[in-house]
Amino acid sequence: TACVDIVPGTSPVENFDANGRGSVPSCFMVGNVSSRYDMNAMPMTTTAFAHSGSLSLQFRSQVSGTTITNGAYAITPRINIDDINKLHISLWGCVGDPGYATVNYARSLIVGVITDPFNISTFVPVDTLNLGIEWRPYDVNFANYDGDDYGGKGQYVMFMSDFNLDNVAFIDDITFSLQKDCYTSVEIGKVTDNSVDVIVKGTAPYQVVYSDKMLSEEELGSMKPIDIEKGNSTTIGNLNSNTDYYVYARSTCAEAWS
Length: 258
Hints:
This protein has 258 residues and is an all-beta fold. It is built from 1 helix and 16 strands.
């Protein structure tokens, strides 16, 4: 079957169930920056964990040991949209096993846009998903994507595992749609020993929550948020140095946290 473009709002949910175990998702392009020709280092479908059906897409990258396989990536078919900034995707992600959720693992996945699928230097990150053990929903908006360093603007979404730590990640049930009227994206600004500036973009006003651990949806619902009524930034102070923190934000018109 010939590959066709993804049409936001029309194309079906990508749940990877049309592919057999240990295969490349149909019409996706996969690779690995460090081990370009090692199939074991590339994202593949797996039955180990699945949000729906029986398969998901697994990313595995390794920066320690004798075999370096950092930089695993998967590129979607072309997105048929007049302006990539209007794209919105929702998906489910996790690390699946408590052993992959320790401080020795990155527990993350980068999402962005690539202009030329055969030229990795045209990839521009848009968001980084902080993954938990269990499946969680994630939303990615592309309103802040400004194109690559060569002046091009891509129409392919790329998922990448490229960190300073080993990493294992699973994604499933990707939905491509047009950006909603209510959306949120988060950026980290100035960082000091005990504070951080959080910049939120999207549909104001906003709420921000932070913690020194990953929070479940239930935990997020019980936290008292920082309200941003005016502007789009806030400074979180009184933080402990040399400590990892997780920042969540949302527009008050939305239910999901970014």
